[in-house]
Design goal:
The structure is a homodimer. Chain A is mostly helical. Chain A folds into two domains: about 60 residues, Multidrug-efflux Transporter Regulator, Chain: A, Domain 2, CATH 1.10.1660; about 60 residues. Helices cover about 65% and strands about 5% of the residues of chain A. The radius of gyration of chain A is 24 Å and the shape is elongated. The termini of chain A are far apart. At the A-B interface, helix 3, helix 4, helix 5 and helix 6 of A face helix 3, helix 4, helix 5 and helix 6 of B. The structure holds zinc ion (4 copies). The structure holds a DNA duplex (30 and 30 nucleotides).
DNA sequence: CTTGACCCTGTAGTTGCTATAGGGTGCATA
DNA sequence: TATGCACCCTATAGCAACTACAGGGTCAAG
């Protein structure tokens, strides 16, 4: 299987596959006589894993860790659980941060009187002496 | 005022201030005889504006736009409102995306039986044949 | 006259790709 | 046989928004 087919199958850009190889996330495949990369089922499986984990928002470092863990099939999966729960906690934190941000911004927009810039509460609130007590 | 004091006053790293200058967000200040940057009240005001907008999650491009708008104090502030509302919509989108992700991940973690890796539903769900119907 | 805190420029690193530039390969067609 | 075209190769630079050096210069105190 050459890189283009692997790319189509996994909905990944060709450059991204080469990038994953370069950073050591995807093992180097064999080469054809014309120096084309030649992938097999194992590569497809590994790349699918990477893509799914990325879709779930894991960082490449976390993906690397999950791959290492999944390669050692004898050990307990509590380490996997730990990685996943840590990621969940990060997502929760991000959501909380964004919600706080949203509240701030919404409040600001609500104060805009649609007049001249010189009277705009949004601009004013962004200014240097804006201490709004939050 | 030299750069270190401006940095402390605005809770900004010195390097970040120089970076804002390099990308044209903060105007070049005058220099002392020893070639040190010398900032005044206008610089402080502008940097405060930038920091506050960044804290609210505006991109540097959006900050640039807001600064341009705020410099022309005669015009209507509806353009400001438009930028702010666009940003709010982006935040809402991000929150929705993160919530969907959170749901997925939470479901996955709930299925982990804490046994061997070979039985782990998390690892399994990340695998190539994982079509979970979402 | 030396120490130390501060400042300067310029460049490279971070994350996770994406997009060129400038070539080579492989197969079908005129 | 020549030529076109889709595909592949490497290497490098770019994106956001900083951050972190390296290798210097400046300035006040002791
Ligand atoms: Zn408020
Ligand atoms: Zn307004
Ligand atoms: Zn599900
Ligand atoms: Zn498990």
């Amino acid at each position: 299987m050459q890189i283009g087919e692997l790319a189509r199958t996994t909905a990944t850009k060709v450059e991204t596959i080469r990038f994953y190889e370069k950073i050591g996330l995807l093992p180097e495949p064999g080469r054809t006589s014309g120096n084309y990369r030649d992938y097999g089922a194992a590569h497809l499986a590994r790349l699918s894993f990477i893509r799914r984990a990325r879709d779930l928002g894991f960082t490449l470092d976390q993906v690397r860790e999950l791959l290492t863990l999944s390669d050692d099939s004898s050990r307990s999966c509590s380490a996997v659980d730990t990685v996943a729960r840590a990621h969940l906690a990060q997502i929760d934190q991000k959501i909380a941060d964004l919600r706080a941000l949203r509240r701030e911004l919404d409040e600001l927009i609500g104060q805009c009187s649609q007049g001249a810039i010189s009277d705009c509460r949004i601009i004013e609130a962004l200014g240097p002496s804006a201490q709004n007590g939050h």
